[in-house]
Amino acid sequence: MTLDEAFEGIDRAIANTKKNLANSRQLFESYLNDIFIQKSDEWEENKLGDIATFRNGLNFTKTSKGESIKIVGVKDFQNHFWIHEDQLDSVTIDAELKEIDILRKGDILTVRSNGNKELIGRCILAGDISEKTSHSGFTIRIRIEREDIYPQFIVHFLKSRELRKQLTESGGGISISSLNQQGLSLIIMSFPPFIEQKAIVAKIDELAVETQRLEAIYRQKIAALNELKQSILQKAFTGELTADTANHTTKVAQEVSAA
Q1: What is the DSSP string of 182-205?
Q2: Phi, psi angle pair for 194, to nearest 5°
């Protein structure tokens, strides 16, 4: 077996593993989306503006001279579900933080403006917060005002393709460039009784854990295959590569991909 053939075998294994990685995420997203499409007649329907209030984030500069607080910025969203308090930056704002701007448990944040349009509409949920914390001007806070609505259920909806579809259709099918409070208030929400909301969230979270486990395995396989490829390249440069080594490497690549 030649060096090129060995590389082709590894590249095929990497491509297959990447495909499995993408499929695991797509299966989860399809399950999530189906929940909000295949709702029953018992679900209540409301505009988000009828069940929540909104608040834009804070604007500040390096020259601001006031209270020092923790801040949730766009960089803190990523693909997280919860705010990671230990990763937040500390900033100084103008004057003191108003009570209305303090984040509390159950608050939902969404990205309203960013240079990367893919980030617009991403959301994250506040859990228990130990320090005085607010959010940046590129985000909007959504605060659910009804006790019979489970914030985690709303966040899962906001992360679904069904919500993305609403946003793009409201914009005439074009890419989303920004969000505002008015646009958020018009989002149509459907939700079952509170107990069912919690049960649905539990099922989604269980599937999310399994999906993350599989994704971690596939990423480890991709990393191992890339290391294998580098190892072969190094042996080729040093003259240590033999036909038996190339054959063995291809076999290992197939085993890693199939495991």
Answers
A1: HHHHT-EEEE--HHHHHHHHHHHH
A2: -55, -45
- Radius of gyration from C-alpha coordinates of the chain: 24
Count H helices and E strands in the chain, helices first.
7, 9
Question: What are 94's strand-pairing partners?
Answer: none
SS3 of 12, please? helix
- Nearby residues of 147 by Cβ (< 8 Å), 6 or more positions away: none
What are φ and ψ of residue 40, in 5° steps? -90, 170
Is the Cβ–Cβ distance between 239 and 34 less than 8 Å?
no
What does the pLDDT look like over 101-157, one tens digit per residue? 999 999 999 998 777 777 788 899 999 999 999 999 999 999 999 999 999 999 999
Q: Residue 247 CA to chain centroid, in angstroms?
A: 40
pTM of the model: 0.81
Q: How far is CA 209 from CA 56, 75, 192, in A?
A: 32, 23, 23
CB count within 10 Å of CB 38 equals 7
Tokens of 200: 């649905």
- The single-letter code of the amino acid at 52 is A
Phi, psi dihedrals of residue 164, rounded to the nearest 5°? -60, -35
Q: How far is CA 196 from CA 42, 88, 153, 161, 165, in A?
A: 11, 33, 10, 21, 24
**Contact present, 108 and 155 (Cβ < 8 Å):** yes
9 touches 255 (CB < 8 A): no
